[in-house]
């Protein structure tokens, strides 16, 4: 009896397993359809076109995440000016990625040419009417002197926000002198973008300043104040459409995770990101948004929109499987693991250093190098940002 019963059960089990297997195949098949179909149709229908916003130019100030080549023009021997950087677009343009950046996808969506680097004068003059990019890798919101007063020394001096503003002034003085009226008109419907913060805070962390200490010495409020003052200058120049980015989940950067690896009390979220770091980013973003609120009250005729990179990135992480990402916090392009926790790490991105290994499928990685996103991640982040800012600029009005 027992034997028979158990055989019957195992027969039923076998049937159940077959049924389940079939069912599973169906589920996998249908979910793969679900994954593939919305992804393709998504880009076509769900993501609005910024073209409808009528931006006729893009001007940008910021850090490496939006550097389309300025630092590479100044220093052609830096790693991001050479392969494997740019491998996906078959050209090393000085962008710190395997391909395009968020700013490129924003420009495309606005039906504008990719924003040329200010340092490439020939290109900058050619695109006089379509915008210029002043962003520079390693750039801080505060000057070297202002940071030194807080005991934060910069290993490298990269053109900070005030220097980039000077370039913007030079550019518009030259441009406006030639076509005065057109210039004013152009500014009226140009999109001005700005991103700062990560490098100010990164320098402080590298020098062992704790987050508590940083909050106490007003670094965050000074960074936000510098951004506000710069925005006021830009608005006084005639900007009426402004997009100001917060910082992303910097605790998920491979470099942040490695830097905390010796810290026994560090805590991590479910993706392996350094919690403290992300909380700090959230804090900066709150202070920044308060600052933007004040600016809006002072400039009611200006659209001042917050670029929520933090939640854009959170959304990419939350949906990573359906978006096709397999690695969230490891760099696609890196040196062999044994070499990582070395002094060099605290200065360099490592991708391009001796012993560099490049993953075969960058599109499955969120991070290209230890601090910068892949083209695929940039595209997904841009999609989120575009959807978020579209109604805020009242583009469908
Ligand atoms: C500068 O821009 C021109 C025209 O777009 C381009 O051909 C050239 O490669 C650029 N130079 C650098 C150093 O990026
Ligand atoms: C800067 O660092 C020095 C030496 O570590 C210390 O004596 C000084 O109090 C610090 N100053 C500030 C403003 O943190
Ligand atoms: C420029 O902006 C002002 C105020 O927002 C508006 O009244 C004017 O029509 C705009 N001019 C052009 C040419 O877009
Ligand atoms: C930061 O701390 C680490 C480990 O405690 C130490 O090796 C390093 O020299 C410190 N760096 C600075 C700039 O104080
Ligand atoms: C180590 O992690 C703890 C807990 O998150 C944090 O409070 C502390 O500042 C970290 N130490 C360093 C040197 O970053």
Folded structure, characterized:
- With 397 residues, the chain is an alpha/beta fold.
- The protein has a single domain, classed as Rossmann fold, CATH 3.40.50.1110.
- The chain is 49% helix and 10% strand.
- The chain has helices at residues 2-46, 70-74, 102-109, 121-126, 144-148, 161-178, 180-188, 198-206, 211-216, 219-237, 254-260, 275-298, 309-318, 320-323, 375-392; strands at residues 57-62, 116-117, 131-133, 190-195, 241-245, 303-307, 327-331, 333-335, 356-358, 365-367.
- It has a six-stranded parallel beta sheet, with helices on both faces. Strands 7-10 form a two-stranded parallel ribbon.
- Helix 4 (121-126) links the parallel strand 2 (116-117) and strand 3 (131-133).
- Helix 3 packs across helix 15 (375-392), helix 6 (161-178) packs across helix 7 (180-188) and helix 10 packs parallel to helix 12.
- The longest helix has 45 residues, at 2-46.
- The radius of gyration is 24 Å and the shape is globular.
- It starts with a helix and ends in a 5-residue tail after the last helix.
- The structure holds 2-acetamido-2-deoxy-beta-D-glucopyranose (5 copies).
- Residues 207-208 line the site of one 2-acetamido-2-deoxy-beta-D-glucopyranose (NAG).
- Residues 69, 73, 120, 122-123 line the site of one 2-acetamido-2-deoxy-beta-D-glucopyranose (NAG).
- Keywords: Glycoprotein.
- Pfam families: Lipase_GDSL.
- Belongs to the 'GDSL' lipolytic enzyme family.
- InterPro entries: GDSL, SGNH_hydro_sf.
- GO terms for molecular function: hydrolase activity, acting on ester bonds.
């Amino acid at each position: 009896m027992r034997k028979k019963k158990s055989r019957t059960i195992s027969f039923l089990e076998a049937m159940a397993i077959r049924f389940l297997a079939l069912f599973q195949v169906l589920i996998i098949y249908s979910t793969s359809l679900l994954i593939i179909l919305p992804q393709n149709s998504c880009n076509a229908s769900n993501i609005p076109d910024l073209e409808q916003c009528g931006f006729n130019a893009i001007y940008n100030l910021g850090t490496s995440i939006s550097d389309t080549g300025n630092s590479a023009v100044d220093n052609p021997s830096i790693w991001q000016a050479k392969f494997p950087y740019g491998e996906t677009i078959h050209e090393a343009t000085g962008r710190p990625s395997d391909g395009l950046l968020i700013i490129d996808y924003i420009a495309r969506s606005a039906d504008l040419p990719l924003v040329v680097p200010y340092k490439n004068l020939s290109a900058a003059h050619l695109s006089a009417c379509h915008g210029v990019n002043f962003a520079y890798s390693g750039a801080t919101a505060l000057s070297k002197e202002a940071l030194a007063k807080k005991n934060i020394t910069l290993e490298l001096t990269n053109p900070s926000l005030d220097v980039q503003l000077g370039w913007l002034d030079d550019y518009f003085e030259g441009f406006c002198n030639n076509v005065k009226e057109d210039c004013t008109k152009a500014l009226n419907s140009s999109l001005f973008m700005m991103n700062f913060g990560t490098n100010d805070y990164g320098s402080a962390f590298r020098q062992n300043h704790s987050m508590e200490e940083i909050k106490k010495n007003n670094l965050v409020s000074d960074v936000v104040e510098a951004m506000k003052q710069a925005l006021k200058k830009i608005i006084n120049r005639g900007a009426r459409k402004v997009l100001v980015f917060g910082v992303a989940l910097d605790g998920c950067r491979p470099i942040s995770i490695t830097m905390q690896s010796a810290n026994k009390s560090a805590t991590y979220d479910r993706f392996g990101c350094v919690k403290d770091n992300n909380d700090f980013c959230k804090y900066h973003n709150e202070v920044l948004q308060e600052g933007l609120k004040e600016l809006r009250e002072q400039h009611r005729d200006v659209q001042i929109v917050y670029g929520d990179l933090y939640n854009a990135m959170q959304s990419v992480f939350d949906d990573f499987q359906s978006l096709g990402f397999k690695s969230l916090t490891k760099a696609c392009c890196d040196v062999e693991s044994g070499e990582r926790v070395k002094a060099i790490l605290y200065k360099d991105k490592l991708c391009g250093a001796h012993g560099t290994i490049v993953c075969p499928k960058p599109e499955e990685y969120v991070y290209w190098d230890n601090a910068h996103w892949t083209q695929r991640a940039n595209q997904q982040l841009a999609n989120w940002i575009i959807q978020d800012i579209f109604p805020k600029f009242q583009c469908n009005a």
